[in-house]
Every structure is written in structure tokens, then in C-alpha cells.
Design a protein that fits this description.
Oligomer: heterodimer
Number of domains of chain B: 2
Number of strands of chain A: 2
Helix content of chain B: 25-40%
CATH architecture of the largest domain in chain B: 3-Layer(aba) Sandwich
Strand order of the largest sheet of chain B: 5-6-7-3-8-9
Structural class of chain B: alpha/beta
Order of helices and strands of chain B: EEEHEHEHHHEHEHEEHEHEEHEH
Strand content of chain B: 15-25%
Radius of gyration of chain A: 23 Å
Shape of chain A: globular
CATH topology of the largest domain in chain B: Rossmann fold
Number of helices of chain B: 11
Radius of gyration of chain B: 23 Å
Chain lengths: 297, 340
């Protein structure tokens, strides 16, 4: 079959009576369509698959390493109990990953999802289909957010499984109280769930950088760098009101869940902080994206 | 300049209507009050040298850039009123088609078909074969040649079952068989009622496939109309002539009506501008004069000469256009035979 002799898709036969073209027409749920296409593209990228695999394996590697060495990471919260209760494992992994690994994970996709189209020159390919810029923007944003949530679920879930493998035994809380094994598992899962708002805030930031700079190195690297810098900044004395609104502060909102008495105020404050960061960064990204000219000067 | 004449296709309005479309990039005027009317079921060539504004115009048709002034209509609708539906029924590409290198050609089409929705996924396998990619459709695009990318771009355009197909230099990197097949395919599409806009530098291809032509130069429309009308205004073709005695040949040519001839350099061929009948007479006359014709090759077609005149000889009286306008050293109108 060749271009000249092959059977071409029928064009004229399916024309509607009002002479409006039907082919390639706009479908309902355009953002969902873009989201699906983005997820398909993600599945084809080795770094995305590698990140997911690393997230699934890393908690077990941590457990194995401490079991083999017999040492305890006593300078880390819950570290000293890692050989006492398996439920210390997900908390140690959370502490190590919360400040910079989770921002790095989301930035792998969110920091690249717009700028890669610039780098590959594929904006013209995407935007010449029947999808509005709003649909494309929303679909990509949702895809980046989906990836972030899935990564938290994978690394958090693997940490919980590693904890289970380490032994479901009571764990000592942050105020010295003994937390029964079942409750410790529940608190560990709850603690991991508090990572979702801040990782979504970092997703918004990475998307903004990706749209604004059109540079994947900046989109991926800057959120990680910011996470590391803010981790250092958080060691410095500063007004509490200011600390509350730092993008990385909500990563530590779970601490009150492990004290006696329990305090959950930081969880709500963290959600508000993350929501604000997400709203501002996404609004700014959209403002830049909607005005962009895609064409030759 | 010949103005485009609105001539709606029978039973409907033109597929593409541009009126006074202007686009600035800072101080640069990319498009300057461009008018364009393209009827349904025609193949319309878009010609112009680099920087003429072809890509900007095509980008505007795709909604990738917004005109600063003027109005663009596709299928009678403006972008403002149609929204995302502006591109319903429109397929094609601007500049070289680009794809995701980490996916196979087939997977790229599947992603695009997901964006298109409808029954597009069922077309993927068929189109991979139709454009001649075959088993290469399962290879990663990063290993594709330019010609293979062009074929994939064509498949991506056809995935949308377009009624308006916009192709920007689609034969770049294609092998001769691919070019021949594409040319035939575009004619078939037009016969099926599909409107094709073909941006090209290749005048031979435009002559072979197009019904009408618009020539852009420095962002303005310098000519627009049917190919027949362009032929009617075009000068005679230019031929390269090699003989056994060039001096005698020039003398013979100088005596013939309707023939211009000159010599660029001592060892090069003669450049002869003449219509077919005048050329036949010249060849016969050369034989009578004892001058052997060793080679006679078409150098510049009438449409090429006209294109050069439009884009390089602008601003001058046609009869006095610079000789360089034909690209051969001969002006677009007959003139006195240069003496040696």
C-alpha cells in the first residue's frame, strides 16, 4: 500500500448536513483526554518508570541496610526504635524524604511537562489538535499532580509494607508514650497522607518554572534546590507567622500526630499553606501559558 | 498585484478567508494586510522566499499565533466564535512535524489520536501502512530520518480526517517515490472534496499539484490566483543551450523573433529565453547554419521566472525588471539580443 494507491480515510462521506466538519472534532471532557494522553507519554519515559521502581524498592533497601549493619540512625526521630518496631521504618523514610526527595520526585514530571514540549518542538503538534489551551493546561497539570500523588502512594505504601516486614510491634511516640502496633500503623499512614498537600504545592511551583522558563533543568532542579535551602532556613530562628507560610513547612505537619496530647493544628495550617502556594503558582503559570505565541517570528 | 477574488465553492462559502491579516513581531512586520480566499476541494500553493511570512500565515491558520489586525475564517467561522472548535476538520503541520522521540511512531499517533478522540485510534494501523512506515512504525521516533518524520507527520494530519489539510514543505527529506506518491495523493484528496494548502519552495511540485497559488513576499500578498492565470502572465521559459559554435548560435538567435540569448561565461552554456515554437524554429535554424546542438536543457520554467520576478524584481516596472529576477541573467520580458 502506498500514499497514491492506498485507501485513504473517508473525508467527504461523513460530513454533517450543516457543512460543519465532524472529523477531528472537539470532544467533551477535553482536559481528561489531555490527561490520558499525558499519562500515556509518561508511561513511555524511562525516568518515570525508574522513579516509580526506586520508590517501591528504597524502603525495603533501608530496612535491609539497618538489619545488616545493626546500627540505628539515632539522630533521626524514630531512628532509635528502628530495631524495636517495624513502624519506625515508614517514619524514618518519611523524615529523610519529606524535605527534598518528594519535591524532587514531583519535579521530575511537573518541572518538565511543559518545557519538554518547548525542548522537543512539539507544541505545534499538540496545539494543532482540537484542544483549547485551557484543556491542555489543565490536563497537563492534572497529569503532573497525578504523578506526584502516585509517587507518594508508592513510596509511602512501600514504607508501610517494609514496616510490616520489619515487625508490627508497639512504637514509642515523640513524648515517650507507647503507641500500640495497630495505632502506630494508622498514624504512620496518616503521617504519609499529610505529605500530599505540600507535594502538590511543589508540583505547582515546578509547573510554573517549567512554563515560565521553558527549561527543564530549571523546572526540575529549582524545586529540589529550594527544598534543600528551605530545610537549612528552617533551622534558623524566624517569626512563626513567616515559618507557617514557607512551602516546605507542611512537610513536618505530622509531628503533632505522634505526641501526647495530640495536636493537629499544623495539619490544617499546612493544608492552607500548600493550598495558597498551589493556587498562586498555578494561576501564574496559566497567566504565562495562555498568552504565549507558538510560532515563528 | 492580482487581488484574490472571493468565489465561494458551489453550495458553500470558501474554506479559508483572510482579510487584511497583519502580524507584528516587535518592529518586524511578519504579515502585512494579507488577503486570501481558498475554495473547497482545491489545492492551493503558498509560495515565497524565506521570511516571506508563509509560516506565520500557516501558524495563524492553526491558531498558534493571533493576528494583530484583520480577520481569519475557517469554514466561515472566526477563532473567537469557534473557540477550540476552530480546528475541527483541520489537519496538518507547520514547519517540520515534531514528535516525542522516546515513543514509537505508532505510539505517537496513539497519543495524538487520544487527543483527537472519536474513532481516530482505529485509523492508526491503517495510516502507518498508508504513509509507508510499515514495521518502522514500531521503532522509536528518535531513530527516524527526516523523510520518515514527514511521513509520520502526514499520518498525524490524516488521523483527524481533515477537510482542510495544511502542509508545510511536506516533501522535505522524502525520496522521489514518496514525493510522486504524495503528489498523486493530494490530487486524489482534492477530488474527494478536501481542501489542501501546500507551502512549498518547489515550483515543479506546485505546478504539478496546485490549482491556485498565492505568492507572499515580505509579509504581503504579491500575487494570488489560479495557476492558469499565473501561466498566462509568466514569461517564456529559459533553456541552457550547448552548441558546437556558440558565437554563431548567438548570432542566429539574435536574428530570430521571440528569442533572447546571452552567454554568462566562456565555458558555460548559453541562456536562451524562448517559447516552445520559437525554440523549435531556433533549433532548425541552427542546423541550417551548420551549428550542432549538443545539449538543450530546461533551466527555468515560466512559473519559476515569474516567481523570481515577483519576489526579487518587486518595485520595478515588469519590463525593466532586473535580469537577476529570472535567476538566469535574462529579464522576465523579451529584450534585445545581447551582441558579442
Amino acid at each position: 500500500m502506498t500514499l497514491a494507491s492506498g485507501a485513504w480515510p473517508t473525508f467527504a462521506a461523513d460530513r454533517p448536513a450543516d457543512d460543519r466538519p465532524a472529523a477531528g472534532g472537539r470532544q467533551r471532557g477535553g482536559s481528561a483526554v489531555v490527561w490520558r494522553a499525558e499519562m500515556t507519554k509518561m508511561a513511555g519515559q524511562w525516568r518515570v518508570r525508574a522513579a516509580a521502581l526506586a520508590c517501591a524498592v528504597a524502603p525495603f533497601a533501608v530496612l535491609m541496610a539497618f538489619n545488616v549493619q545493626g546500627a540505628t540512625p539515632s539522630d533521626t526521630l524514630f531512628g532509635q526504635w528502628i530495631h524495636t518496631s517495624g513502624w519506625a521504618v515508614p517514619m524514618v523514610v518519611l523524615l529523610w524524604s519529606g524535605q527534598w526527595l518528594l519535591p524532587a520526585l514531583t519535579a521530575i514530571v511537573a518541572g518538565d511537562i511543559f518545557s519538554a514540549e518547548d525542548h522537543l518542538g512539539t507544541w505545534k503538534t499538540v496545539l494543532t489538535r482540537s484542544r483549547s489551551r485551557g484543556q491542555v493546561f489543565t490536563g497537563k497539570l492534572l497529569a503532573a499532580a497525578s504523578f506526584a500523588v502516585v509517587m507518594v502512594v508508592i513510596v509511602g505504601g512501600a514504607s508501610m509494607l517494609a514496616g510490616l516486614a520489619g515487625g508490627s510491634r508497639p512504637l514509642v511516640g515523640l513524648t515517650g508514650q507507647t503507641v500500640p502496633a495497630g495505632h502506630a500503623a494508622w498514624l504512620a499512614a496518616l503521617s504519609w497522607s499529610t505529605q500530599l498537600p505540600p507535594i502538590l504545592a511543589f508540583t505547582g511551583l515546578a509547573v510554573l518554572l517549567s512554563v515560565w522558563t521553558r527549561n527543564s533543568v530549571v523546572g526540575i532542579g529549582a524545586p529540589v534546590l529550594l527544598g534543600l535551602v528551605l530545610q537549612l532556613v528552617s533551622m534558623v530562628d524566624m517569626p512563626l507567622a513567616l515559618r507557617h507560610w514557607l512551602i516546605n513547612t507542611p512537610f513536618g505537619a505530622w509531628i503533632g500526630l505522634w505526641t501526647q496530647p495530640r495536636f493537629v493544628g499544623p495539619v490544617g495550617q499546612g493544608a492552607a499553606t500548600s493550598g495558597l502556594w498551589l493556587a498562586v503558582t498555578v494561576a501564574a503559570a496559566w497567566a504565562v501559558f495562555r498568552r504565549r505565541a507558538i510560532g515563528a517570528a | 498585484m492580482r487581488s484574490p477574488e472571493p468565489s465561494p465553492a458551489a453550495g458553500g462559502r470558501p474554506v479559508v478567508e483572510a482579510a487584511g491579516v497583519t502580524k507584528w513581531y516587535g518592529e518586524t512586520t511578519a504579515l502585512d494586510r494579507v488577503d486570501l480566499v481558498i475554495d473547497a476541494g482545491t489545492v492551493h500553493g503558498l509560495l515565497g522566499p524565506n521570511g516571506a511570512g508563509k509560516t506565520t500565515l500557516l501558524s495563524a491558520l492553526f491558531g498558534l499565533v493571533l493576528p494583530d489586525e484583520g480577520e481569519l475564517r475557517l469554514f466561515g467561522r472566526t477563532r473567537a466564535t469557534a473557540g477550540a472548535a476552530w480546528l475541527d476538520g483541520v489537519g496538518g503541520f507547520v514547519e517540520a512535524p515534531r514528535f516525542y522521540p522516546y515513543l514509537s511512531g505508532r505510539a505517537n499517533l496513539e497519543v495524538l489520536s487520544a487527543l483527537d478522540g472519536g474513532d481516530a485510534p482505529s485509523l492508526v494501523d491503517h495510516l502507518v501502512d498508508l504513509v509507508g512506515l510499515g514495521s518502522d512504525g514500531d521503532r522509536k521516533v528518535r531513530g527516524y530520518s527526516l523523510g520518515m518524520r514527514q511521513r509520520l507527520g502526514l499520518a498525524a494530519a490524516l488521523l483527524r480526517r481533515p477537510r482542510l489539510l495544511i502542509l508545510d514543505e511536506p516533501t522535505n527529506g522524502m525520496d522521489p517515490a514518496g514525493i510522486r506518491d504524495l503528489t498523486a495523493a493530494l490530487r486524489r484528496l482534492a477530488e474527494d472534496g478536501v481542501t489542501v494548502i501546500l507551502s512549498s519552495h518547489d515550483m515543479h511540485q506546485v505546478e504539478a499539484v496546485c490549482d491556485a497559488v498565492t505568492v507572499l513576499h515580505r509579509g504581503t500578498t504579491v500575487w494570488s490566483g489560479s495557476l492558469d492565470a499565473m501561466r498566462g502572465e509568466a514569461p517564456d521559459p529559459v533553456w541552457q543551450l550547448r552548441t558546437s559554435d556558440d558565437a554563431a548560435a548567438l548570432a542566429v538567435a539574435g536574428r530570430r523573433a521571440g528569442v533572447d540569448a546571452l552567454r554568462h561565461d566562456q565555458d558555460g552554456p548559453l541562456a536562451v529565453m524562448a517559447g516552445q515554437a520559437a525554440l523549435d524554429d531556433l533549433v532548425v535554424e541552427l542546423g541550417r547554419a551548420g551549428v550542432a546542438v549538443r545539449a538543450l536543457v530546461l533551466d527555468t520554467t515560466p512559473l519559476q521566472s515569474f516567481f523570481f520576478h515577483l519576489t526579487e524584481g518587486r518595485g520595478a516596472d515588469p519590463g525593466a525588471a532586473p535580469a537577476a529576477a529570472t535567476g538566469t541573467g535574462l529579464g522576465p520580458r523579451r529584450r534585445a539580443v545581447p551582441s558579442r
